[in-house]
Amino acid sequence: MAKKKWWSLIGLAVAATMVAGLVAGCGGGGKPAADSKEIKVGGNLELTGGIATFGQSTANGIKLAFKEVNAGGGVLGKQLVFVSADNKSEPSESTNAITKLITQDKVVAVLGAVATTNTLAAVQVATDNKVPVISPTSTNPKVTYDNGKTRDFIFRACFIDPFQGTVMANFASKSLKAKTAVIYTDNSSDYSKGLTEVFEKTFTELGGKVVAKEAFLQKDQDFKATLTKIKAANADVVFIPAYYEEVGRIVKQARDLGITSPLLGTDGWDSPKLAEIAGAGALNNGYFSNHYSPEDKDPMVVKFVEAYKKEYNQVPDAMGALGYDTAMMLVDAIKRAGAADPIKIKDALAATKNLQLVSGIVTLNEKHDPIKSAVIIEMKDGKQVFKEKVNP
Questions:
Q1: Which parts of the chain are beta strand (E)?
Q2: Fewer C-beta neighbours within 10 Å, C or N terminus of the chain?
Q3: Is 161:145 a contact under the CB 8 Å cutoff?
Q4: Is the separation of the CB atoms in 101 and 112 below 8 Å?
Q5: pLDDT surpassing 60 at residue 38
Q6: For residue range 203-245, what is the model confidence (pLDDT) as tens digits?
């Protein structure tokens, strides 16, 4: 009997330990142990797939920021640990990535995604688990504000499409003196469709006329049939608000067909791969809006560009700069929150004011959007050249 009783007691102890372990493993992310010397931050990024250079540059900027902060003693006496998950440039994978980061990796906040569609795919998971998300580059207004309501846990470091679309419509009308335009939209992208709407409205209000609107889908390869119609429209400018993979092929095929009009775009053009795909010469007479220029002589920009080049041996694009800025927004919020607690971080983020970052001074409005400047970049022989700065 004694032996049986002894084994029964052991069985009860094991069962109790297992139950305790299960209880500790349940629930959302973000509640690190009180004595933890680390703060885990997630990255839901496009590390492979159609816009992989965007995700990789963003990750580089984040890692550089965290490296600098950790070298200076970290945040609240703790070291930042960056845990990245590849969303493969796909919305469904973005949902999977943020779910893993929150429920398995127990991060206190998530940086990313890059693309609007991928960030929107992560919104519900973040909201349900009460973990804040900061997108470096998702510019569609619905990312942070929808159906008349601000999304409590979603923030961004970039300007939004109504501003970016307006900037390019103004540039077309006032700087290039364009009277007519064709818009070539990526119908599989919320980003592209939102920009199309704003550009058309603003360009028309300025007295211009959109003489044709055409559409394509991501991963399309042959655009010649549609570009032939665009050529026949003979517009003063062609606006292509899309990502670099398709834009590169469109630009190459457009120039091959003899389209010589200025080609206009937005921040989705900003990748070294654009010139590789399109060809340097084909991009001449091409312009796009962006978040910053590495040619800016502001001391903070100069310091960032030097540090990034030293770390990665390349000039940082806007995604690298916005990745860095997003990380610094989070660091600032954690400091002001006084704790690595997702709810407190969320509240601190909402109160962000006059924060000096590489891409400008950031104050978040009631919709969690920063009000900041844009720049126009001109493509010259495959190189980005600063054209002009546009204030909000």
A1: 38-45, 79-86, 110-111, 133-135, 145-146, 149-150, 154-156, 180-186, 209-216, 237-239, 263-265, 286-290, 355-357, 360-362, 374-380, 383-390
A2: N
A3: no
A4: no
A5: yes
A6: 999 999 999 999 999 999 999 999 999 999 999 999 999 999 9
> CA–CA distance from 2 to each of 5, 8, 11 (Å)?
5, 10, 14
Residue pair 346/152 in contact (Cβ under 8 Å)? The answer is yes
% pLDDT > 90, the chain: 88
Q: Letter for the amino acid at 282?
A: A
Judging by DSSP bridges, how do beta strands 383-390 and 374-380 pair with one another? antiparallel
Of 353, 194, 216, nearest in space to 266 by CA: 194
Q: What is the CA radius of gyration of the chain?
A: 23
By DSSP bridging, strand 180-186 and strand 237-239 are parallel
User: Which residues does 149 contact at the CB level (< 8 Å), separation at least 6?
Assistant: none
pLDDT computed for residue 371 by the predictor:
86
Q: How far apart, in whole angstroms, are the C-alpha atoms of residue 379 and residue 382? A: 6
Structure tokens at 302: 């100069």
CB 384: neighbour CB atoms within 10 A?
A: 24
**Residue 219 has what pLDDT?**
93
Give the residue among 327, 350, 326, 324 at the shortest CA–CA distance from 337: 350
| 27 DSSP 8-state letter | S
CA dihedral for 64, 66, 67, 72, sign (positive or negative): positive
**392 closest CA partner among 375, 378, 372:** 372
- Model pLDDT, residue 201: 98
Q: How many CB atoms are closer than 10 A to CB 339?
A: 15
Q: Are 66 and 80 in contact (CB under 8 A)?
A: yes
Token pair of 246 as six digits: 């398709």
Lowest mean pLDDT among 14-28, 63-77, 120-134, 266-280: 14-28
Cis peptide before 113 (omega within 30 of 0): yes
Average pLDDT over residues 367-382: 94
Residues facing 156 on adjacent strands: 135
- What's this model's pTM, rounded to 2 decimal places? 0.83
